Structures are given as structure tokens and as C-alpha cells.
């Protein structure tokens, strides 16, 4: 049963139900019909016998039927007997056995000469004196015939059922054909071809919806599979550059006698690249956490006004060497539930970018304010700006406008900003004009402490 195909299971179920209905209904209907027919014959027999008994003729000490009484046409035969069972008048059917003993007051059946009869024997009285008896007889052959026909009509249904079952099988086969298609395609997909889709052109019933859902699932699978593939190659690419630089610097230092300043130069280059690898690894670790959709930040109520001010102050020091001035407009006392290290990372990434992608003599403005519903953090710069085409891509991992720049950071800063913003109920927005500057805005819809 477990290995049986669904279409056969449905057919079996269908047949079992049909047989059960027939098996239960046929005997019931048979009994009802035969009872009705018997009751009808009994009623006719009794009413006609009693009607005749009322108009019986008694003359010369003998009982007999009135000459006008003839019930044969209605199917009832009547015979009148004397007390000593001598037939006085009337007639009984030819095949009826005349030796059947009377059973007075009873309606009963008898089989004789291949026929079935229903019989009613009735005592006749005149002035309270028993003057003889009357026998009424009807044939039950018609009743038996009707019942026989009923039985054979049931048997006649069987070929009709076989035809219906066959049509049912064809219908079930057609209905389940998408399942075969789905299985076939699923097998091809399991062989590593994630681009394959079911694309079934079928009505949107349960199977249609299933096929559509599977296609959607395959879209998502293909997307994340490709993303993983790209991520691995991007990571290797990003790591290769600083590691190659470290190896080159070390080989350079080890190749022949060097002055101490040359050794220092090699070591500081190794240190710089080592720091780059270390920064990249921490960013990758953070990215890995963002993949785990179930990461729950350890939030606590923090004065983010103070935190933002501290970060701005710290980064202002470094920006001086790049000839960038940082100013800030920070509304005081905004307290929000945040994970401090993540919130700091978000601020640093945004302000860092505003400095990195700026022009000498440029400026950066950081602002933090609140409205009755949201807290808005914005970082604006007078930098190189981002083209319209690149703008939607900047939130993708490893995206860099200038792919050739070897010293550029790996392109993980903004995806991390977006992830942290979302973890804190925030949305990211950016407007930018090429060669003019950019404005990054994070709108936190979370409740802040008043
Ligand atoms: P990266 O590590 O390269 O800074 P990000 O994810 O932080 O990566 O940024 C992705 C790209 O978006 C950057 O390479 C840069 O081209 C562009 N970008 C980000 N911030 C700015 C900005 N303030 N001004 C101009 N371009 C920016």
C-alpha cells in the first residue's frame, strides 16, 4: 500500500466506497420493495375477500357466490366451501394445489407447481352459525418478477461502473500529471542545475500553487547559492591582495643585506597589510553574524547623543590629515535601546566613508535629532558623490564604485550599516550627486526614552 501510486490509491478508495454504498443500500432497498409489494398484495386479498363475504348468497341451506361476483380480473380468485370443505362455487387458479389445508384468520403464502401464492381463508357465518368458509388466492409471481428485475438491474450497473472507473482513472491521471513533471524537474535540479524551473502552465489549483511555490523557492535558492559563491570568491580576492603584499615585503626584507631603515619600511608595510587583513576579518565576522537572521542584539538604554559626539570628536582628529572638517548638530539627551558596539560601528562606517570619499578641503556634517516618532541620524559630505547607476548597488556586499582601487576597503561598510540599522528598527536612505556630495540618513522608528 505504501508503494502504491496515488492514482491507484484514489481509484481503490473510489471503488471501495462504491461497493460499500451498493452493499449497504441494495439489501435495504430490496427489503423495502419486497415488503411494500407483499403488504399491497395482502391488503388487496383481505379487502376483496371480506367484501365478497358480505354479499355471499345462502339458499337451500347452501352457501354460494353471487353470480355477479367475479374478481379474477383484479387478480384475486375466490372459492366458497361448505363446512365439510366441499367446493360450492367460485374458482381457484389452475396451478393452485387444492389440497392446501385452510388456516383461518391468517394470511399466508404457499408454493405449489412452481408458483408462489398468497392465501386468505375466512369463515362464513349466518345468524352466528358457521355455514362454510371462503378462500381468496392471489399469485405472487408478479412480485417475484419485480424483485428479480431489481436484482438484475443491480448487476447491469457493474459494466457502467467499470466505464465510469476507467474515465475516473483517465481524469485522475490527467489531474496528477503535473506531479510527474515536478518529480522529473526536481531530479534534474538535484543534479546541480539550479537554473531549471518547473514553469508549469496549469490552473492555479493545489498543484498549480505547489509548482509556483517551488519555482519561487528555487529562485531564492539560486539567488542565495550564487550569493554564497560570489561571497567566497570576493573574500578570497580581498584577502589575496594584502597577503600577497605581506609576502612580497617579507621576501624583499629577507633578500640580501638591508639597511635598518629598509627593514623598518618592510616591517611597517607588513604591519599595515596585517592590520588590513585583521580589519577585514572583523568585518567578515560581522557579516557572518548578519547572515544569521536570528542574531539578537544585546540592547541597553544608551545616550546616543553623547555616543555620537564622542565618535565625531575622535574621527575629527584623523580627518585633519585629510584636510576635511567635521561639524555636528546633535540634539542632546536622546536615549535609545542599542547594542553599543554595533551602534558605534554604524557611526564609524558612515563618517569614515564621508571622509574617505571626500575631496581635500571638504566638509562632513553629522546630525542627530528626534521627532515625536523617529530618531534621525544623518551624515552629509561634500565629497565625490555617487552616480545614479551605482546608488542602488552601494548596499551590496563587496561593491566598490572604484573596483581598481587596491587600497580601498573591501566594500562591506555599508552592508554592515544597513544590517545594524535594521537590527535597531531603522531604515537607510541616501541621496547623492556626482562631484557634489552625499547625504546618508538612518531613520530609527524604534521608541526612544523621553
Ligand atoms: P568600502 O569599504 O569600499 O567603503 P562601503 O560598503 O562602505 O565599502 O561603500 C561601498 C561603496 O560606496 C564605496 O566603495 C564607495 O564607492 C561608495 N561610497 C560609500 N560612501 C560614500 C560616500 N560618502 N561618498 C561617495 N561614495 C561613497
Task: Give a description of the structure.
This protein is of the alpha+beta class and 450 residues long. Helix content is 50%, strand content 20%. It has helices at 6-54, 141-190, 206-254, 260-291, 304-321, 340-356, 413-423, and strands at 57-59, 62-64, 76-81, 87-90, 107-112, 115-126, 129-139, 300-303, 325-330, 335-338, 363-370, 375-381, 426-433, 437-444, 448-449. Strand 5 (107-112) and strand 6 (115-126) form a beta hairpin. Helix 1 (6-54) packs antiparallel against helix 2 and helix 3 (206-254) runs antiparallel to helix 4. The longest helix has 50 residues, at 141-190. Adenosine-5'-diphosphate binds at residues 349, 353-354, 357, 381, 383-386, 394, 399-401, 408-415, 438. Residues 349, 353-354, 357, 381, 383-386, 394, 399-401, 408-415, 438 line the site of adenosine-5'-diphosphate.
Task: Tell me briefly what this model is.
The chain is α+β, with helices and mostly antiparallel strands and 450 residues long. It contains seven helices and 15 strands.
Amino acid at each position: 500500500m505504501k508503494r502504491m501510486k496515488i492514482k491507484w490509491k484514489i481509484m481503490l478508495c473510489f471503488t471501495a466506497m462504491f461497493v460499500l454504498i451498493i452493499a449497504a443500500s441494495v439489501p435495504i432497498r430490496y427489503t423495502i420493495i419486497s415488503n411494500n409489494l407483499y403488504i399491497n398484495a395482502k391488503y388487496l386479498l383481505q379487502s376483496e375477500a371480506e367484501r365478497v363475504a358480505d354479499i355471499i348468497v345462502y339458499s337451500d341451506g347452501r352457501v354460494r357466490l353471487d353470480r355477479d361476483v367475479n374478481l379474477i380480473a383484479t387478480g384475486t380468485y375466490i372459492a366458497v366451501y361448505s363446512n365439510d370443505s366441499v367446493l360450492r362455487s367460485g374458482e381457484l387458479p389452475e396451478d393452485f394445489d387444492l389440497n392446501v389445508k385452510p388456516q383461518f384468520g391468517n394470511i399466508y403464502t404457499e408454493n405449489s407447481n412452481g408458483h408462489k401464492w398468497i392465501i386468505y381463508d375466512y369463515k362464513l357465518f349466518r345468524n352466528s352459525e358457521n355455514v362454510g368458509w371462503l378462500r381468496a388466492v392471489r399469485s405472487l409471481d408478479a412480485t417475484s418478477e419485480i424483485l428479480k428485475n431489481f436484482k438484475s438491474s443491480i448487476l447491469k450497473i457493474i459494466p457502467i461502473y467499470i466505464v465510469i472507473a476507467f474515465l475516473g482513472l483517465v481524469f485522475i491521471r490527467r489531474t496528477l500529471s503535473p506531479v510527474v513533471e515536478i518529480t522529473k524537474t526536481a531530479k534534474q535540479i538535484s543534479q546541480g542545475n539550479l537554473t531549471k524551473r518547473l514553469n508549469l502552465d496549469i490552473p492555479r489549483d493545489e498543484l498549480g500553487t505547489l509548482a509556483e511555490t517551488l519555482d519561487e523557492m528555487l529562485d531564492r535558492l539560486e539567488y542565495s547559492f550564487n550569493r554564497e559563491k560570489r561571497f567566497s570568491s570576493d573574500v578570497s580576492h580581498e584577502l589575496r591582495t594584502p597577503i600577497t603584499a605581506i609576502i612580497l615585503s617579507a621576501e624583499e626584507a629577507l633578500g640580501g643585506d638591508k639597511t635598518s631603515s629598509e627593514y623598518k619600511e618592510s616591517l611597517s608595510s607588513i604591519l599595515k597589510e596585517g592590520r588590513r587583513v585583521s580589519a577585514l576579518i572583523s568585518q567578515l565576522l560581522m557579516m557572518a553574524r548578519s547572515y544569521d537572521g536570528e542574531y539578537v542584539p544585546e540592547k541597553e538604554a544608551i545616550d546616543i547623543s553623547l555616543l555620537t559626539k564622542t565618535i565625531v570628536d575622535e574621527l575629527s582628529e584623523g580627518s585633519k590629515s585629510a584636510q576635511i572638517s567635521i561639524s555636528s548638530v546633535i540634539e542632546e539627551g536622546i536615549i535609545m535601546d542599542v547594542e553599543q558596539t554595533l551602534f558605534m560601528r554604524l557611526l564609524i562606517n558612515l563618517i569614515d566613508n564621508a571622509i574617505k570619499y571626500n575631496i581635500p578641503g571638504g566638509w562632513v556634517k553629522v546630525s542627530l535629532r528626534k521627532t515625536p516618532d523617529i530618531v534621525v541620524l544623518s551624515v552629509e559630505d561634500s565629497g565625490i558623490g555617487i552616480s545614479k547607476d551605482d546608488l542602488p548597488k552601494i548596499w551590496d556586499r563587496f561593491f566598490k564604485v572604484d573596483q581598481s582601487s587596491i587600497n580601498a576597503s573591501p566594500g562591506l561598510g555599508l552592508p554592515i550599516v544597513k544590517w545594524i540599522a535594521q537590527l535597531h528598527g531603522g531604515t537607510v536612505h541616501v541621496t547623492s550627486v556626482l562631484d557634489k556630495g552625499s547625504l546618508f540618513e538612518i531613520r530609527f522608528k524604534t521608541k526612544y526614552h523621553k
